[in-house]
Write a structure and sequence with these properties.
The structure is a single chain. The chain is an alpha/beta fold. The chain has a domain of about 130 residues: Roll (2,3-Dihydroxybiphenyl 1,2-Dioxygenase, domain 1), CATH 3.10.180.10. The protein is built from 3 helices and 8 strands. The chain has a 4-stranded mixed beta sheet with strand order 1-4-3-2, covered by helices on one side. A 4-stranded mixed beta sheet has the order 5-8-7-6, covered by helices on one side. Keywords: Signal. InterPro entries: Glyas_Bleomycin-R_OHBP_Dase, Glyas_Fos-R_dOase_dom, VOC_core. This is VOC family protein.
Length: about 180
């Protein structure tokens, strides 16, 4: 198998394992991990990527225009975006930072677009595909029904992040059988 199909297969396996996190409940079937040394378990209020890019305004406009995000906070070197939630779900959060930011310690280096895919799950990928295409977003991978159970397409934001827009659909019969881990 060549490198490109292998990478796509690995990405597909990761993307198909979409998990909705609910901070109030542990993962089904698993007790919460014990706290070390009797200390209270860490409680996470939020978890979001912070992507370093000099194109803050362009990136802001991309997510506001194409995905309906709102600006939660904006400064000359930092941008915090909040996405719309569906049916009572909390929306996603993204943050971007200019490489010349004044925070301490310095870093990280500017994001170059490699090694990250941001998955945006929607209820209707075909409608999102039409809206983004009509709105001028670059389409890198066309709307496709994947055998592992996703209807998806891909675009790229001005910061270089590959954005995979997915809708969960029924997988092809037996697709996951050879990949399942047996305990």
């Amino acid at each position: 198998m060549t490198a490109a199909p292998f990478r796509r297969m690995c990405c597909a396996a990761c993307l198909a394992a979409t998990i909705t996190l609910d901070a109030a409940e542990p993962v089904r079937g698993q007790p919460p991990p014990p706290a070390e040394n009797g200390a209270e378990q860490m409680k996470i209020r939020d978890l979001y990527p912070l992507i370093t890019t000099p194109l803050l305004a362009e990136t802001r406009d991309f997510y506001v225009r194409h995905f309906g995000f709102q600006v939660g906070f904006e400064a000359s070197w930092f941008l915090y975006l909040i996405g719309p939630g569906e049916e009572g779900a909390r929306g996603a959060v993204l943050a971007f930072m200019h490489p010349d930011h004044p925070s301490d310690p310095p870093g990280p280096e500017r994001f170059d677009g490699r090694g990250m895919i941001l998955t945006v799950e929607v209820g209707d990928a075909a409608a999102a595909f039409r809206r983004l295409g009509d709105g001028g977003a670059p389409i890198l991978y066309p709307l496709t029904d994947e055998a592992w159970g996703q209807r998806r397409f891909m675009t790229r934001d001005p910061a270089g992040v590959m954005v995979d827009v997915v809708e969960q659909i029924a997988p092809a019969a037996g697709f996951w059988e050879p990949y399942m881990i047996r305990n």
